[in-house]
Design brief:
This protein is of the alpha+beta class and 257 residues long. Helix content is 21%, strand content 26%. It has a seven-stranded antiparallel beta sheet with strand order 2-13-10-15-5-4-3. Strands 1-6-14-11-12 form a five-stranded antiparallel beta sheet, with no helix packed on it. The protein has a three-stranded antiparallel beta sheet with strand order 7-9-8, with no helix packed on it. The structure holds 2-oxoglutaric acid.
């Protein structure tokens, strides 16, 4: 489960987006917005790949699909885009050329599934098999895949790439982030202080654009005011081995795909 706090923030929003995806900028701020990464054909191909989403337990439906887990396992187009040079060129400054994709999820907001999430850090990774390794806790299985909360340094050493398949303006539930909050490990009681002190950034981004995010950056997501589609392919990349014989559930990269 994400580590969550309430949805309010006493500081006003800012649209002063960081667009610098260099190592220094993303290491300092924990995110970057990069427009025009994929073209219309790439986006259409990804959207088509979801139209025939299988009746699989990785698909969560309300009135329409709003979340599909385990995309690296079930969706060839997502596997391909995870290896695409344009995406890997965004990952390389942070994680190096040896980075691999470990998990991918589709998020959508539509009428009837217009969800929100309070301030939280992403807190789990997917691994092949459970094992009693110090610092790894809260084991669970989701859609047949083992999930575990690792030490904060493991997720803090990863990078999430969020590929936008629809224009995401202020009114359709954009991601909001608290820059710099990823540098302090797991945050619980401190979340209120971060909300009070730091101006939240609204990550508006156009179709084909990408948000890079450190998984333990504090982030939140509001319901869309006018829900239409807000499809985001969320891909998590890592570059390090896990301790104690634990193995990443997936490691998708051009050389081993
Ligand atoms: O897609 C969003 O707006 C938020 C998703 C999220 O918070 C998460 O991946 O933990």
């Amino acid at each position: 489960m994400p580590r969550c706090s309430g949805n309010t923030n006493s500081r006003p929003y800012s649209h002063n987006l960081n667009t610098d995806y260099s190592h220094d900028a993303v290491a300092r701020l924990g995110y970057a917005v990069v427009e025009n990464v994929l073209n219309a054909d790439d986006v259409a191909k990804l959207i088509d790949s979801f139209d025939d989403a299988p009746a699989h337990n990785a698909v969560r439906r309300k009135s329409a699909i709003y979340g599909v887990r385990n995309l690296l396992e079930i969706n060839v187009a997502v596997r391909e885009i995870a290896c695409d040079e344009r995406i890997r060129n965004l990952v390389a400054p942070m994680l190096g050329a040896g980075a691999f994709a470990t998990r991918a999820i589709l998020f959508d907001k539509v009428p009837g599934a217009n969800w929100s999430l309070g301030w939280h850090q992403d807190s789990v990774i997917s691994v092949r098999e459970p094992s009693d390794v110090a610092g790894f806790r809260a084991w669970s299985q989701k859609a047949g895949v083992w999930q575990v909360q690792p030490p904060a340094e493991v997720l803090g050493g990863m990078l999430t790439v969020r590929i936008h398949l629809d224009d995401c303006g202020e009114s359709n539930g954009p991601l909001r982030v608290l820059p710099g909050s990823h540098r302090f490990g797991w945050l619980d009681d401190e979340i209120e202080d971060w909300k009070a002190r730091v101006q939240q950034i609204v990550c508006t981004v156009s179709r084909g654009g990408v948000v890079l995010m450190n998984p333990i950056l504090l982030h939140a997501s509001s319901p869309a005011e006018y829900p239409a589609h807000r499809r985001v392919v969320h891909i998590e990349y890592a570059c390090a081995e896990l301790p104690g014989g634990l193995e990443w559930n997936q490691r998708v990269a051009p050389s081993n795909d």
